[in-house]
Amino acid sequence: MATLGAPKKHKVTIVGSGNWGTTMSKLVAENVKENPNLFDQTVRMWVYEEDVTIPKESRHYDPGSETANKPQKLSQLINTIHENVKYLPNITLPPNVVADPDVVSSVKDSTILVFVLPHQFIPRVCDQLKGHIVPYARAICCTKGVDVGESGIRLMSETIGMRLSIYCGALSGANIASEIAQEKYSETTVAYDPPPMDSRAPTPSGSPTSSQVDLISPSKPIPSARSARLKALPSEYPPLSHENVRKLFHRPYFHVRIVDDVAGVSLGGALKNIIALAAGFVDGLGWGDNAKAAVMRVGILEMVAFGKAFFEDSVKTSTFTEESCGVADVITSCMGGRNFRCAKKATATGKSIFDIEREDLNGQKLQGTSTAYEVHEFLKSQGIEQDYPLFTAVYNILEGNVKPEQIPDLIEPKFDGTGAKR
Ligand SMILES: NC(=O)C1=CN([C@@H]2O[C@H](COP(=O)(O)OP(=O)(O)OC[C@H]3O[C@@H](n4cnc5c(N)ncnc54)[C@H](O)[C@@H]3O)[C@@H](O)[C@H]2O)C=CC1
Ligand SMILES: O=C(CO)COP(=O)(O)O
């Protein structure tokens, strides 16, 4: 592979700086250092700016300092102490992670954009980026969620790809960020399958001919995605082959498997968050591990059925069963994820999960709650809520229409008297 001779290197921006976003910056920054022939040595991380006071329990808290107990800009703090004290405390970031509060300047000249924002912020941030990114940039979406609108349901990778007219793959797996930040072993799945054009591109100044422009591969419910056009990656850059994409993410403690099923990888990450809420609801009742396993089983069936029903052109069942982004992520999320923990506490205390998110997560965001609403809106628009009883039960619990105690009855298959299952 002619990467050694490539005169240009890929600049990487991490778009997001929460718990997972900051962890991603750390591991990507470690990898660019180990691959100087492929990647620029600085990794920029876009920080949604806020004022942060260093907590008293932080190792960086110095009562004698003039900034003690005073709010400081999060981006400046990260660049000074190399730690995100709010979203990833006690983890030292490599010095080549540079925080930037300006989203437009953070992506300047970057050919690789790694999106790691809570999914509700993706459309707006993409709109801010429109016209400011390198037209032949490639993206990887690490966000877990779906985008539901009048035109149907989209993967977040499709939303990014369509809004920015670039190719967007996906990274998802059984990946509790704090464990990975501490360099404890885990696996992940990367779906990266752009049209085969990145190794036959013209120079950056040349405009691509029609043979050098391909379509973003669409999934079924989004006809508008078919009109999104890709610009070829200029030949001065190392090709973004699977091998080179793997070099960006794989660490001794973070093992990457690459597949081509962007829909399967994205849906696994999004839908498991609804299942994790259900697991938390039953665990909060003190019902134990068998109850949790029961909702996980039904949830996995609904996840696979959903993928097959609405993304049938692309999704593969094996992605859910064999890769980290499927059953494995359901398991880890139902043991220790934020959605699980907050749902469990909500049931155990009788408080609203939205209050618990605000009180306990210090600005971190649950994705399962909004995903449950979005998936319900989509199922309702199709008139098929009853085909997804667990997803529907979670929505109805969040809405206060039913109680967690009703889950067993709600997910029990119904028979119509003729022996047929409804
Ligand atoms: N934390 C984890 O263990 C994992 C998270 N993920 C996924 O990664 C995505 C990002 O999650 P985290 O990095 O954990 O974030 P987080 O939940 O820790 O933090 C929330 C982030 O949102 C930012 N934010 C708040 N308001 C904003 C706005 N108006 N516009 C833009 N950004 C705003 C905050 O500054 C903060 O960076 C989610 O989809 C999540 O499901 C995926 C795997 C693991
Ligand atoms: O996605 C995750 C683990 O793979 C993290 O899940 P939570 O957002 O529920 O913490």
TrEMBL record:
<dbReference type="GO" id="GO:0051287">
    <property type="term" value="F:NAD binding"/>
</dbReference>
<dbReference type="GO" id="GO:0005634">
    <property type="term" value="C:nucleus"/>
</dbReference>
<dbReference type="InterPro" id="IPR011128">
    <property type="entry name" value="G3P_DH_NAD-dep_N"/>
</dbReference>
<dbReference type="GO" id="GO:0046168">
    <property type="term" value="P:glycerol-3-phosphate catabolic process"/>
</dbReference>
<feature type="domain" description="Glycerol-3-phosphate dehydrogenase NAD-dependent N-terminal">
    <location>
        <begin position="11"/>
        <end position="193"/>
    </location>
</feature>
<keyword id="KW-0560">Oxidoreductase</keyword>
<dbReference type="InterPro" id="IPR013328">
    <property type="entry name" value="6PGD_dom2"/>
</dbReference>
<feature type="region of interest" description="Disordered">
    <location>
        <begin position="191"/>
        <end position="218"/>
    </location>
</feature>
<dbReference type="InterPro" id="IPR006109">
    <property type="entry name" value="G3P_DH_NAD-dep_C"/>
</dbReference>
<dbReference type="GO" id="GO:0141152">
    <property type="term" value="F:glycerol-3-phosphate dehydrogenase (NAD+) activity"/>
</dbReference>
<dbReference type="InterPro" id="IPR036291">
    <property type="entry name" value="NAD(P)-bd_dom_sf"/>
</dbReference>
<comment type="similarity">
    <text>Belongs to the NAD-dependent glycerol-3-phosphate dehydrogenase family.</text>
</comment>
<dbReference type="InterPro" id="IPR008927">
    <property type="entry name" value="6-PGluconate_DH-like_C_sf"/>
</dbReference>
<dbReference type="GO" id="GO:0005829">
    <property type="term" value="C:cytosol"/>
</dbReference>
<dbReference type="Pfam" id="PF01210">
    <property type="entry name" value="NAD_Gly3P_dh_N"/>
</dbReference>
<feature type="compositionally biased region" description="Polar residues">
    <location>
        <begin position="202"/>
        <end position="214"/>
    </location>
</feature>
<feature type="domain" description="Glycerol-3-phosphate dehydrogenase NAD-dependent C-terminal">
    <location>
        <begin position="261"/>
        <end position="407"/>
    </location>
</feature>
<protein>
    <recommendedName>
        <fullName>Glycerol-3-phosphate dehydrogenase [NAD(+)]</fullName>
        <ecNumber>1.1.1.8</ecNumber>
    </recommendedName>
</protein>
<keyword id="KW-0520">NAD</keyword>
<dbReference type="GO" id="GO:0005975">
    <property type="term" value="P:carbohydrate metabolic process"/>
</dbReference>
<dbReference type="Pfam" id="PF07479">
    <property type="entry name" value="NAD_Gly3P_dh_C"/>
</dbReference>
<dbReference type="InterPro" id="IPR006168">
    <property type="entry name" value="G3P_DH_NAD-dep"/>
</dbReference>
